[in-house]
């Protein structure tokens, strides 16, 4: 499936709209792409034998068929860059949600307090009046993400 790069065809910069990102995510979720990019889910699952380069180019062909036909290698690179960007952003947000505390911090008057401040603490029963707006926003994004994932791959319990 991989084509040689045609250096005479320059691919314009891609504006990644929400629709294009969702199309890319749908391609990542396909079994033949997911197993190469993210690994096997089950112990007995077979790998596809494709390289990541092949997978990026296959996803580019599905999301950008016309641009892919002009320069498959460049489009594969563009898809790879966006995939790596999305993965990095996901890891940053996931890390923030897993943070349990920020350590001892000073108050508004620069006085060190013995109290620990949790920037994004959300109680076990969900946000309440003590939850910061930032934590509420992250909590809302997490719930939205979980609902989307559950709808797409049906692995989370329905009460999320």
Polypeptide structure, described:
The chain is mainly alpha-helical and 160 residues long. Helices cover 53% and strands 5% of the residues. It is elongated. 12% of the residues are buried. This is Myb/SANT-like domain-containing protein.
Give a short overview.
The protein is mainly alpha-helical. Helices cover 53% and strands 5% of the residues. Strands 1-2 form a two-stranded antiparallel ribbon.
Short key terms for the protein model shown above:
160 residues, 2 strands, Myb/SANT-like domain-containing protein, 5% strand, elongated, 53% helix, mainly alpha
Q: Widest sheet: strand order?
A: 1-2
Mean pLDDT: 79
Cα distance spanning the termini: 40 Å
- Please, what is the oligomeric state? single chain
Give me the strand/helix succession: HHHHHEEH
Q: Could you tell me the number of beta strands? A: 2
Q: What fraction of the residues are assigned to beta strands by DSSP? A: 5-15%
Helix count equals: 6
Structural class: mainly alpha
Low-confidence stretches: none
Shape: elongated
Fraction of residues in helix: 40-55%
Q: Output the radius of gyration.
A: 21 Å
What is the strand and helix layout of this fold?
Elements: H1 18-29, H2 31-37, H3 52-63, H4 65-70, H5 72-98, E1 104-106, E2 112-116, H6 133-153
Antiparallel strand pairs: 1-2
Helix pairs in contact: 1-3, 2-3, 3-5
């Amino acid at each position: 499936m991989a084509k040689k790069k045609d250096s005479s065809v320059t691919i314009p910069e891609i504006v990644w709209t929400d629709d294009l990102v969702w199309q890319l995510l749908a391609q990542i979720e396909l079994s033949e792409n997911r197993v190469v990019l993210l690994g096997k889910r089950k112990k007995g699952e077979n790998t596809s034998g494709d390289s990541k380069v092949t997978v990026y180019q296959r996803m580019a062909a599905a999301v950008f068929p016309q641009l892919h036909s002009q320069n498959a290698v460049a489009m594969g690179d563009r898809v790879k860059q966006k995939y790596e960007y999305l993965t990095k952003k996901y890891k940053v947000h996931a890390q923030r949600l897993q943070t349990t505390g920020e350590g001892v911090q000073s108050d508004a008057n620069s006085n060190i307090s013995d109290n620990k401040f949790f920037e994004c603490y959300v109680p076990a029963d969900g946000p309440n009046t003590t939850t910061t707006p930032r934590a509420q926003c992250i909590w809302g994004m997490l719930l939205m993400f979980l609902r989307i994932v559950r709808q797409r791959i049906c692995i989370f319990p329905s009460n999320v």
